[in-house]
Amino acid sequence: MIETKRLILREFNENDAYTLFEILSDKDVNKFLPMFPLKNIEEAKDIIKGYQEDNGIHYAICFKDDNICIGYVEVSGDESHDFGYGLKKDYWHQGIVSEAALGVIEALKNKGIPYITATHDINNPHSGDVMKKIGMTYKYSYEELWQPKNFLVTFRMYQYNFHVDDDFVYDKYWNIYENHFIEDI
Question: How far is CA 61 from CA 68, 108, 142, in A?
C-alpha cells in the first residue's frame, strides 16, 4: 500500500469490481484506452482476477477517507514496464492521477525496475501532461494501427529511468512501427 497526501493506493480486491466497471465502461474514460468499454460486471471481475495473476503492478486509487476505488495506476510486467492510469470522469483535472503516479514512482525507485515507459495519443494531451508532471521525458512518436479498435493513432512515448543510464531509450516501438519520428515539443 502507498499513501499520499489525499490518497491510498492499494491492491485491487473483488469488492472493487463495480467501481472498476463504472470506470472502464464509461465511453469518455475509455476513448483513449486500448480496449472497448466493458459491457458487464463480469468483465471487470475478470480484469481484477488477471491483476492478481500477472506479474505487473496494479493499484486501486482511493481517497483516504473512504477507501473506495476511483481509478487505477499500473505498471506492466513485461519489458516495456508500461505505466498506465485511468480515473472516473468525476475526478478528472484535480491532480489525482499525478499525485497517485508520483507515489508509485517513489515506490518503484526501490523495486529494481530499471525504467518505465508510457504512451499517449496525441489527441489526449492531458495524459501527456501527467507524464511531464511526474518527471517522465519525451523520447519519440510513432504511428500504430491500434487494435482491437482498428484505427491509426499517433503515440508519444515517454520514459522515466531508474536503474539504467539516463541516455537509455526503450526503442521497441521505434523499431516496430515504420512511421516514427521525434517531435519538437
Answer: 8, 16, 30
